[in-house]
Design goal:
The protein folds into 2 domains: 2-158 and 313-345, Quinone Oxidoreductase, Chain A, domain 1; 159-290, NAD(P)-binding Rossmann-like Domain (Rossmann fold, 3-Layer(aba) Sandwich), CATH 3.40.50. The protein has helices spanning 42-48, 99-102, 150-153, 159-169, 185-196, 211-217, 228-233, 251-255, 278-281, 296-309, 323-331, and strands at 2-8, 17-23, 30-40, 65-72, 84-87, 90-92, 112-113, 133-137, 142-143, 177-181, 200-205, 221-224, 238-243, 258-266, 287-290, 315-318, 338-342. With 346 residues, the protein is an alpha/beta fold. The protein binds NADP nicotinamide-adenine-dinucleotide phosphate and zinc ion. Residues 41, 43, 63, 158 line the site of zinc ion.
Length: 346
């Protein structure tokens, strides 16, 4: 056991505050990581404030972790002391079923999430990346490309993979028209990744205030969803729409933007059900789907893709003690485009 320092939510209504807790001593297959940067995902806020109703307190959030290996267990072969590594949204999964062969472990029972869950023992709460170090099985540790900015790589571990996986699954690429709804932490990564895959990329944002940035990051087109004309102009335009918004939208209006056989993929998780009229889907064989992060294999593939294409997140670095202010700014969509905590300030 080793003492770890971090910042935790102690209940849903209180600001995050300094917190000390124990990390397990490394087992033979574990890697000990000194955390250097931790991205701030909107899911951290949902969970720290118990907006999904499943929060375990005290909770150290953070599942966009970039750090340096400081120790490896005796059976670890993939990593050595000094390596630049990442940890994303989960740190263990069921290994008795076929999940590791089909690379969809994120969808199968037995997933151990990086925080707000329990370790494989079923009783020790997992604690995330807003902390000085973490101990993770080597199979759940990712290699970060050395050519990428270290801090700006952290958000790839959640925002990056969450967009990469559906873009690949629904074959985004040359000749495909892809729309990204919401130009936030997830959305701006979707723009960069879809552009690098060769798709024709459109941002659907509430306003045109981030248009210049969107076009710079790789969007071909940028529309405001506050303008009803957008929905007329773009009717039937897209093969794929990735929605990163967690607010309620007029879902029938968005499905109306899909081509025949087009798919609207929900990535954000609205609190209320998503009401859709059958007529929005049936006459054009359209689908509504959901997608959650990506497998470990796919996450490494995404990181390597980002290394090749020089893709990182657009970040604003904060000190650890600015986290509560950062949460308020994320809620107001006042972040361009991901906060990353410099863990040296802990
Ligand atoms: P974020 O940085 O806050 O971005 C969300 C964007 O949604 C905002 O930038 C804004 O874009 C748009 N938006 C916000 N409020 C809106 C409203 N009332 N109506 C319409 N659009 C609105 O959050 P994020 O970190 O990207 O996360 C987005 C969501 O995805 C969260 O709910 C998070 O929990 C979820 N998530 C899901 C997964 C997964 O695996 N499926 C993984 C990570 C996160 P504009 O200003 O451009 O309109
Ligand atoms: Zn996340």
């Amino acid at each position: 056991m080793a003492l770890a320092r971090g910042y935790a939510a102690t209940d849903a209504s209180k600001p995050l505050q300094p917190f000390t807790f124990e990390r397990r001593a490394p087992n033979a297959d574990d890697v000990v990581i000194s955390i250097k940067y931790s991205g701030v995902c909107h899911s951290d806020i949902h969970q720290a404030r118990n907006e999904w109703g499943n929060s375990i307190f005290p909770m150290v959030p953070g599942h966009e972790i970039a750090g340096i290996v400081t120790e490896v267990g005796s059976s670890v072969t993939k990593f050595k002391v000094g390596d630049r590594v990442g940890v994303g949204c989960f740190v263990d999964s069921c290994t008795t079923c076929a999940s590791r062969d089909v690379d969809i472990e994120q969808y199968l029972p037995g997933l151990v999430v990086t925080y707000n869950g329990y370790e494989a023992d079923g009783k020790t709460p997992t604690q995330g990346g807003y902390s000085d170090h973490i101990v993770v099985k080597e199979g759940y540790v990712l290699s970060l490309p050395e050519n990428l900015d270290f801090a700006a790589s952290a958000p790839l571990l959640c925002a990056g993979i969450t967009l990469y996986s559906p873009l690949r699954h629904w074959n985004a690429g040359p000749g495909k028209k892809v729309a990204i709804v919401g130009m936030g932490g997830l959305g701006h990564m979707g723009v960069k990744l879809a552009h690098a895959m060769g798709a024709d990329v459109t941002v659907l944002s509430q306003s045109l205030s981030k248009k210049e940035d969107g076009l710079k990051l790789g969007a071909d087109h940028y529309y405001a969803t506050s303008d009803p004309k957008t929905f007329e102009d773009l009717a039937g335009a897209f093969d794929l729409i990735l929605c990163t918004v967690s607010a309620e939208l007029d879902w029938n209006a968005y499905t109306g933007l899909l081509k025949v056989d087009g798919t609207l993929v929900l990535l954000g998780i609205p609190e209320k059900p998503v009401p859709v009229h059958a007529f929005s889907l049936v006459p054009a064989r359209r689908s509504i789907a959901g997608s959650m992060i990506g497998s470990i294999k796919e996450t490494q593939e995404m990181l390597d893709f980002c290394g090749e294409h020089d893709i990182v997140s657009e970040i604003e670095m904060i000190r650890m003690d600015q986290i509560n202010e950062a949460y308020e700014r994320v809620i107001k969509s006042d972040v361009r485009y991901r906060f990353v905590i410099d863990m040296a300030t802990l």
